[in-house]
Amino acid sequence: MSMEKKKDIVMSGIRPTGFLHLGNYFGAVRNYVRMQDSYTCYFMVADLHALTTLNETRELKGHVRRVMAENIACGLDPDKVAFYCQSHVPETAELYLLLNMLAYVGELEKTPTFKDKVRLQPQNVNAGLLTYPVLMAADILLHRATLVPVGKDQGQHLEIARDFASRFNGRYGEVFPEPYAFNFGEALAKVPSLDGAGKMSKSENQMATIYLADTDEAIRKKVAKAKTDSGGDPGSPMPESVANLFQLLQLVSGEDVVQKFTADYAAGTIRYGDMKKELAEGMVGFIGPIREKAEAIQNDDAYLRRVMEQGAEKARASAKVTIQLSKDAIGLSYI
Ligand code: ADP
After folding, report:
1. What mean pLDDT is reported for the chain?
2. Helix or strand or coil: residue 52?
3. What integer pLDDT is reported at residue 288 of this predicted model?
């Protein structure tokens, strides 16, 4: 008999609401790639989640294909993981319904991301927005995953998913292990935007976000426009805009480059123009090959179709087992 330990189960997703950016890469995709050899992984394109905010659903097809191509271009291997579209796995919706019976409207209304969305789109406060954390919990619990590689912005949703798991287990019987956000023992990543405040995001300021599809020229232009300080007194605390640039430099440039500019900053001799040039070239060198690979994959219809079909098949096999266990626990089994 094999003594091999059962691998931990990993689950995560990205919404197809626009091009992937550096935040998605360093917060999520990089970890997908790092985890794919040692864990049983389920990664999905969260197209149903996108419906809560996307008005023009005819854009979905292009977005889904691009997100898939970009993940693969970053190193995700569809033969090693289950890489699928959320809407290709209808068991997700079934578990979502079952979990909705355990979710309280009051707690959902208090979720900070719900409050943000209400502020952003007051004309479309749909019930899907309110129950977004329930659908996210369903995505994760569907595979009984325990490790969820996500950026810092998703930490709170994970807490909600854990609540639902333990509520379900407490009410009906033990089915779900508790899922935790995962980043190889490090703090969850938050990639800052270039405008000195907040995080990079698909939907917010495009000039402050570096996309994996950006041309070399676009990257250089965006970085050149990034906010810095106007010199300041040596020894005064580093403004957020500058700290953000250092954080980005750390991600795409060598340690020696970071050290040089850190020393220059401390000495009050830093030249932001030079620092930005280094940062831009670091990003160009990093993104160029990914962009080219993604374009080629995106144009390969037969390959993408195969990836989607193969992913859905693997995901549904795992999902069906969980749905059966859930129904049995609840008492929804009569024959
Ligand atoms: P977006 O916020 O750009 O719409 P999603 O909500 O689809 O992206 O998130 C996909 C993944 O990317 C999640 O794991 C999320 O935590 C991560 N992510 C998104 N933006 C950032 C960022 N600026 N820094 C770190 N991780 C991020």
Report:
1. 94
2. coil
3. 97
Return the SS3 of 312: helix
Answer left, alpha or beta for residue 37, where phi above 0 means left and psi between -120 and 50 means alpha: alpha
Nearest atom within ligand 1 for CA of residue 154: 16
pLDDT for 264-274, tens place per residue?
999 999 999 99
133 Cα–ligand 1 center, Å: 15
pLDDT of residue 75: 98
The reply to whether 190 belongs to the active site is no
202 tagged catalytic: yes
Our answer to whether residue 227 is catalytic in this structure is: no
Structure confidence by residue, pLDDT tens digits, 205-236: 889 999 999 999 999 999 999 988 765 566 67
CA of 23 to the centre of ligand 1 (A): 6
- DSSP string across 57-107: GGGHHHHHHHHHHHHHHTT--TTTSEEEEGGG-THHHHHHHHHHTT--HHH
Q: What's the rounded mean pLDDT across residues 97-103? A: 98
The answer, yes or no, to whether any atom of ligand 1 lies below 6 A from the CB of 208, is no
Indicate which residue of 80, 152, 199, 327 is catalytic: 199
Residue range(s) occupied by CATH 1.10.240.10 in the chain: 206-295
**Token pair recorded at residue 33:** 């790639």
Whole-number Å distance between alpha carbons of 319 and 323: 6
What CATH topology corresponds to 206-295? Tyrosyl-Transfer RNA Synthetase (1.10.240)
CB 283 within 8 A of CB 235: no
Which CATH number is associated with domain 9-189+301-330?
A: 3.40.50.620
